[in-house]
Amino acid sequence: MKIHHIGSMNVNPYQRQLVKTERLAAGKANGDQVEISKEAKELQEAASWEQARQAKLEELRRQIENGAYQVDPRAVAKRMIDYYRITDKGSGSR
Hints:
The protein has helices spanning 13-31, 38-66, 73-91. By secondary structure, the protein is mainly α. The protein starts with 12 loop residues before the first helix and ends with a helix.
């Protein structure tokens, strides 16, 4: 069996694939979007809180090292009492 005129019909399968790929790429270029999830936003906020916390801790460390840090005993006692009142109400033991 003889096959004559291979490729004489001006059909190039590679060219057709290239045109199809270019068409798909052009369609996607206009519709790409990025959406940040709620959890990712919360993680970003947590990172900023962590930086603020570290800054506060560094300031407290400097005050303690310099002897400038003063503890208010009344404020500590009040917070302890408030904590145990809330804890006792939650556990029902009284």
